[in-house]
Amino acid sequence: MSDLVMHALRHFLNNPYESCVIVDNEARVQFMDRASEKFFGLDHGKAKGIDIRELIPESGLPMAIQTGVPAIGRVFKVKGKNRIGSVHPLNRDGEIIGAVGKLVFHSFEEVEKINSEIARLRKEIRYFEEKEQYEYGPRYAFSNILGKSVALRETVDFARKISTLDTDVLIVGESGTGKELFAHSIHSVTGQKRPFVKVNCPTIPFDLAESELFGYSKGAFSGALSSGKPGKFEMANNGTIFLDEITSLPLSVQAKLLRVVQEREIERLGSTKTQKLNFKLVLATNVDLKILVNQGKFREDLYYRISKAIVRIPPLRERKEDLPVYIAHFVHKISESFKITAPAPSPEAVEVLLDYSWPGNVRELINVLEQAILKAWNAKDILLEHLPAELLSHSRTSVTGHTKKSGGDLEPIGFSQEIKEKERQLIISAIGKTKGNKKMAAKLLGMPRSTFYEKMKRYCIEEKDR
User: Fold this and answer.
1) Mind giving me the DSSP string for 289-343?
2) Residue 373: how many CB atoms within 10 A of its CB?
3) Neighbouring C-alpha atoms within 13 Å toward the C-beta of 133
4) Distance between alpha carbon 94 and the CA centroid of its chain, in Å?
5) Top mean-pLDDT range of 12-16, 311-315, 353-357, 436-440
C-alpha cells in the first residue's frame, strides 16, 4: 500500500471534524478516533472493548449489525446533544462481522446553521423568481376585465379567440381604456410561465431605441458593456413582447422592426450575426395609425404587417352601462388600498358620474373616485361637493345642487326625478341592445330580473319605447 493511501487512511480515521467508531459483531468498540475518545473522557485506547450502547444508548450500530441495513443521514443523541451521522454494517463472505459509524458533524448546531443558510438562499431565490415573474410575466387575465356592455364583451371575445393564433396583435384604444390589461390577458391564454416583456416605447431615448430592443454586442459603442447586452426581443424569446405606444419609435427603428417581425430574427447592434427567435408580438397605440402613415410619421409597410388582427377597445363614453360595475369595483379596491370603509356615491353623485364623458376613460374614473373618497373620508356618502369641479362643470348641476335659470338666478332641481329618468333610459337602451331579450337586458345592467321587471312596470316601459 502506498504512502499516499496510508496517509489518506490515517486522515480518514483521525479526521478532527468527523468521528469514526468501529465495532465488532457484539457492538463492542474496536476502534475510536482520538477526538471521540476525548469527547467521552477516555484515555487513548481505553475505548476498546466497551459496548457502544454504554457510550451512546441510541447508537444505530447494533441495529445495523442485526439487520445488515445501513442508516444514512440519521440524527443521533450523544451525551444529550443531537448529531447527524451514518452507520454501515461490515459484511465478510455473507456474514456481518461488525459495523462502522461516523458522525459527520461534532455539533448539530452546525447542521442547523447550514439548514438556516440554505433556507435563506431559497428565500432569496424565490424572491428573485417572483420579481422576475412580476417584471417578465403577465399580471392579468381576461377574467380581470370588468364590464357587461355588449361592446366590451364582443371585444373580449375577439381578443380571446386570436390569443391562441400565431399572429401579431395590434391593440387600439384611447388612453385609459386598458390596452395593457388586454395585452397581459392575450399572453396569459397561452401560458403564465412563458416570458412577457413589456416595452414602454415613449420612455426609450431615441438614440438608445435600437440597442434596447435588439441588444448590442461587445464594443458596439462607447460605454457599452464589455459582455454585450441582450435586447427586449431576446428576453421575450418563446414568449410575448408587448410594445406599448408603438408610434413613439423612430422611423429608423421601425425599419429594423419590420425585418424582425417578418423574419423572426434579430441582429444585435455592432454584430453581423443573426439569431432566430420565437415570439408573439402585441402592440398598442392610442392614435389612428393610418393618419400617421399619411403624414409620413409611421411606415406604411410596417402598418400593414402588424394590422392583421386589430383589437379595438371602445371608450367608456360608448359603454356607459359599464360605469355602475366600475364604480362599485373601484370603490371597494380603493377602500382596501386606503384600509378604510369608503363611502358610496350618493344618487346625486352617481348622476354626475353617469353624465360625464370620461375623456380619460377608466384611468380617469379611478382618479376621480380616489379624490372623492379622500375628501369624503368621514362622510356617510360621496356627495357632489366631494367630486372634482371639472365633472360638475360638465353636468347640469352645480356644486350646490342647483341649475341656472335664464335670468341667472338659481332654483332647486328635482334630483330624484332626473335620476329616475336616467334609469328609465338605461333600461330602454339595454332592451334595445339585447333586441328585446329582458333576461339579457337585466344581466347587462347587473340587475336581478325581479327588480328589472318591477322597474319596467314602474316606469311604464313597453316594447314600443325601445
Assistant:
1) HHHHHHTTSS-HHHHHHH-SEEEEPPPGGG-GGGHHHHHHHHHHHHHHHHTS-PP
2) 23
3) 12
4) 60
5) 311-315
* Under 8 Å between Cβ of 415 and 348: yes
Q: Which cell numbers in the block locate residue 73?
A: 443521514
Q: Looking at the domain covering 418-465, what would its CATH class be?
A: mainly alpha
Grade residue 415 by pLDDT with cuts at 50, 70 and 90. very low
Task: Quickly tell me which residue has 373601484 as its cell.
Answer: 330
The model carries a pTM of: 0.58
Residue 210 exposed, middle or buried by CB count within 10 Å (0-12, 13-18, 19+): buried
Amino acid at 465: D
Q: Residue 21 is placed in which grid cell? A: 467508531
Spatial distance between the Cα atoms of 99 and 64, rounded to a whole number of angstroms:
7
Distance of CA 284 to the CA centre of its chain: 20
Residue ranges of the chain that CATH labels 3.30.450.20: 3-104
- Is residue 414's pLDDT more than 60? no
Share the mean pLDDT of the chain.
Answer: 81
CATH placement of domain 142-219+228-314: 3.40.50.300
Name which of 164, 167, 162 is nearest 190 in CA terms.
164
How far is residue 158 from each of residues 142, 169, 320, 338, measured CA to CA in Å? 11, 11, 21, 36
CATH top class, domain 317-404: mainly alpha
pLDDT value of position 411: 32
Query: Is residue 1's pLDDT more than 70?
Result: no
Domain 3-104 belongs to what architecture?
2-Layer Sandwich (3.30)
Phi/psi class of residue 129: alpha, beta or left (left: φ > 0; alpha: ψ in -120 to 50)?
A: alpha
Question: What's the distance, Cα to Cα, between the start and end of the chain in Å?
Answer: 105
CATH 3.40.50.300 residue ranges of the chain are 142-219+228-314
Q: Which helix (H) or strand (E) holds 110?
A: helix 108-135
Helices vs strands, H then E, count in the chain:
19, 16
Q: What integer pLDDT is reported at residue 118 of this predicted model?
A: 66
